[in-house]
Design goal:
Elements lengths: L1 H12 L3 E8 L10 E4 L4 E4 L5 E6 L4 E5 L6 E4 L3 E5 L7 H5 L1
């Protein structure tokens, strides 16, 4: 009976949860269309107009936040996350030359 209970507990603890959160820039503006990926599970979603996202992944899954002109952020999933993206500091003129 103990083994059955422990087995059920293990299965329940690894089930996917709805990982949700918000992606902002350093000024607090929501980032629309930021790509949120769980590479281990091959899952991807994008933030909505308010910078919100939701992805069904187990707790502890690595998430990658990728958006044009910002550094990639790599975090471990939790119940709810607020991710603040950092500028890449690349000046457009340098890119063109």
């Amino acid at each position: 009976m103990k083994r059955l209970f422990l087995g059920l507990l293990l299965v329940i603890s690894t089930l996917a949860i709805a990982q949700s959160g918000k992606v902002l820039d350093k000024t607090g503006e929501p980032q629309v269309g930021c790509k949120v990926t769980a590479p281990e599970l091959r899952l991807t979603t994008y933030t909505d107009f308010d910078g919100n996202y939701e992805l069904d992944v187990p707790k502890g899954t690595t998430l990658i936040f990728d958006y044009i002109s910002y550094e990639k952020e790599i975090v471990v999933s939790q119940d709810s996350l607020i991710v603040v993206l950092k500028d890449t500091q690349i000046i457009l003129e340098e890119l063109v030359q």
